[in-house]
Please model this.
Amino acid sequence: MCNPTKLTVQIGKKIVERKIRYDSTIVDTECKLLNINEQELILFHRIEVPFTMKGTQYNLTIPRDAYTLAYYWNELPYNLYVWRDKNGSYLGSYFNIVKNTTIADAMVSFEDLIIDILIFPNGEYFILDEDELPMSLNKFEDGFAHQALQTLINSIEPLLQGILLKSEKEFSHNDIISTLYDS
Model:
């Protein structure tokens, strides 16, 4: 687990999120530190380019100037993006199934295991990208991704509700978000 006393903790500090895709390509995104403690790292990222996530029945568009609260845990096989509009209203969430999350002073990195869960504001969720796996989900990564997905699905509602309530209370368009948003 990360040791926050070894990290330079400064709200608003720039931190790179490094996503290592399954094909070994790397995507770096510059974020800003919101919080770090022994359990989690939370980053802020302002959306510059709108995008649309597609579920089986619905689409979720994240507009320009919305923001992401990104949650990372060294000990858990997933990370979470919570999207809010520029006024702080909840737009939706997205879990990545991952491995080898590493939190360092200026970077958080993780290996993406392709499978994701998209959650709409009404609570409906969809498992994404199973068709992109190089083999069946049961066999992929020796069953690790399947087990991580099942564990997450079994706890998704209380887990997400707890994080949403906490983020609403601590970060929903308060002074910290306003400062990060405008910088």
